[in-house]
Amino acid sequence: MKYSSQENRLVDNIKAAIPDVTPGVTVRAYHTGRLICDISVGQTYPYYDLASLTKVIFTQQAMMEAFDQNKWNLETKVSDILTDFPNKDVKIQELLTHTSGIEWWKPFYQSIDLTKTWQQKREWLYEELKKSEFKKTGKAVYSDLGFMLLSFILEKMAQKNILDVWTDFKSRYYPNTTFDFHINNKTDMPINQIAPTEDCPWRKKITRGEVHDENTWALGGLSTHAGLFGSIEDVSAFGLNVRSQLQGIARYQVRQKTAQLFATRAIPPDVGDWALGYMMPSANNASCGSHFSILSIGHTGFTGTSAWYDPRHDLLVLILSNRVHYGRDNKGFIQLRPQIHNWIFESLKRTI
Q1: Maximum CA pair distance of the chain?
Q2: Is 272 part of a structural domain of the chain?
């Protein structure tokens, strides 16, 4: 592939940085909606395990749509929707901002009955979530369990199971994409087109085409905190959708004022860096680098994925990798990801 001089510099920088960090990385960037960077460095693949990007590609966007349809508001409590939920105080918005106090993670995969259907597993999961502890600390504590709980809220509001919620949602938001969950951890995609993730000690194999997250895998490949697979084109569709929503272009999805509300800081900086479901840049070591404005929104994925949009500079940067292939304790990507954002921003500094 022929790259521009700016892209070639970025390729050279990434090549020098990725040994022992990740097998490869795919990067796209859009400025004012125009594609300005489209590169792949190292060993890359058409499809990736998107990990926690699932939270914003699906769950947060679906909750925003339901909000826009007046199915809940910022004062709505979980128990207003799930009437049998024992905690009567926690608000839905607190799940989106990770301030509910719910436990951040539990090894459900160690106790769930793997012989059950994914539907039966979800019934089991809900009972476990009802038993979860809520301990508010005055700080945002990133929680997979909070986003798992949102799945049952979505089901109740839509009056359909979460797979049907996703299928319906995808038809409206991402109709021309290959985004999908690999139900029962199986896929019709050619396996060599999917990036391998970790050599998993629990599953005793390199996971490929099966979701990396153990809890999602045990639930049958379907969850609202992880599980989606997709391509850089797919993640671009998500990012450009977010841009269109904020500019009032994607009116068929949500009203502009709703999109802007969900993209606005929802908690004080001393509590955490969250809008309603979106990450916002931290004062130090932001994953979107040091140049993105404080208005920026995005999210990261444990496998080495991220999507960040800066509305002030109208700059969107999308990164896919399988950095966990070198082991989940490999921390090099934490330094590389913000540097990629910095390199792209600095290459555009004369125009933005």
Answers
A1: 59
A2: yes
* DSSP letter string, 84-117: T-S--S-BHHHHHTT-S-B-S---GGGTS-TTS-
Judge whether 64 and 74 are in contact, CB under 8 Å: no
Residues 6+ apart with CB under 8 A from 85: 78, 79, 130
Amino acid (1-letter code) at residue 71:
K
Q: Are residues 341 and 289 in contact, defined by beta-carbon separation less than 8 angstroms?
A: yes
Q: State the pTM of this model.
A: 0.97
The total domain count for the chain is 2
Asked whether the CA dihedral 47, 53, 54, 60 is positive or negative, the reply is negative
Residue found under tokens 């929503």: 245
CATH assignment at residue 248: 3.40.710.10
Mean pLDDT of 159-179: 97
What SS3 state is found at 26? strand
Query: What is the distance between the alpha carbons of residues 348 and 48, in angstroms, rounded to a whole number?
Result: 28
What are the tens digits of pLDDT across the range 149-164? 999 999 999 999 999 9
Alpha-carbon span 28 to 36, nearest angstrom: 8
* Helices marked H in 231-348: 232-246, 256-262, 332-347
Question: Which pLDDT tens digit goes with each residue over 198-238?
Answer: 999 999 999 999 999 999 999 999 999 999 999 999 999 99
Give backbone dihedrals phi and psi of 82, rounded to 5 degrees, phi first.
Answer: -100, 90
Tell me whether residue 352 is in a domain. no
The rounded distance, in Å, linking the Cα atoms of 280 and 14 is 24
The count of residues in the chain is 352
